[in-house]
Design a protein that fits this description.
By secondary structure, the protein is α/β, with parallel strands linked by helices. The chain has a single domain, classed as 3-Layer(aba) Sandwich (Rossmann fold), CATH 3.40.50. It is built from eight helices and seven strands. Strands 3-2-1-4-5-6-7 form a seven-stranded parallel beta sheet, with helices on both faces. α3 packs parallel to α4. The longest helix is centred in the middle third of the chain and has 29 residues.
């Protein structure tokens, strides 16, 4: 009789996850996906009221979740919090900031604000979770929510693109460094996703039409489109995947 292979498990039972930017949008969707798959999830964000609402809704479903007020731009706070509440088997860094303008109008203040969260914050958060895993001698999966704009340019998005290209760079470097210890580091790169933070973009009919023209599947993204990608990278189903970018962008970058 033929010996059939066994499908790898997507279950996260027994795993502990940290999700930042988890009070709404993509972060909340990622936390939901991980909790539904059985992980014990710590939802982290700056907005305590929104966090409380999210945690209450998830506990009502019987999931194992808790809230952590955290500003990823505060590196010392991140290091202390991760050491206190970790080690985490899974990290989903979904905290991010965008301040779009023509490149000639970029101010140092806007540049620093975006880089402090998207790059500096992401770097030291990933570092902190990796340190906890290394000290505990545990494998893990570290996922940074990047962007399709980490692979292409975008009008009025020079600073944002720069921050996300940099995330791709340190993700690959850390994947090489931590790989021998079975710690995987990857990114998920969404296209334009409908969230509270992107309402201004989606309120502009001309911008929406431009987005749909670029997305070969002919529709914009929803947070549900990201959930499966994150679950895959967090689980044993992706045990041979590291140092890569999972693009969820409907063919935008295929040109």
């Amino acid at each position: 009789m033929i010996d059939l292979p066994t499908t790898p498990s997507f279950s996260l039972t027994g795993k502990k996850a940290l999700v930042t930017g988890a009070s709404s949008g993509i972060g909340l969707a990622c936390a939901t996906a991980l909790a539904e798959a059985g992980a014990q999830v710590v939802l982290a964000a700056r907005r305590q009221d929104k966090l409380r609402e999210a945690v209450e809704a998830m506990i009502a479903r019987g999931w194992k979740v808790s809230a952590l007020q955290l500003d990823v731009a505060d590196v010392l706070e991140v290091q202390v919090s991760v050491e206190k509440h970790g080690p985490f088997d899974i990290l989903v860094n979904s905290a991010g900031l965008a301040r779009h303008s023509p490149a000639t109008e970029t101010t140092p203040e806007d540049f620093d604000a975006v880089m402090n969260i998207n790059l500096r914050g992401a770097y030291f958060l990933t570092q902190s979770v990796a340190k906890g895993l290394l000290e505990a001698g545990k494998p893990g999966s570290l996922i940074n929510i990047s962007s399709q704009m980490a692979h292409v340019g975008g009008i009025d998005r020079a600073v944002y693109c720069a921050s996300k290209f940099a995330v791709e760079g340190f993700t690959k470097a850390m994947a090489l460094e931590f790989g021998p210890k079975k710690i995987r580091v990857n990114t998920v790169c969404p296209t334009f996703i409908r969230t509270p933070l992107t309402e201004q973009t989606f309120d502009n009919p001309e911008r929406v039409e431009w987005i749909k023209e670029k997305i070969k599947l002919g529709r914009t993204g929803e947070v549900e489109d990201i959930m499966g990608a994150v679950l895959y990278l967090a689980s044993d189903a992706s045990s041979l995947v590291t140092g890569t970018a999972l693009l969820v962008e409907g063919g935008w970058t295929a040109d």
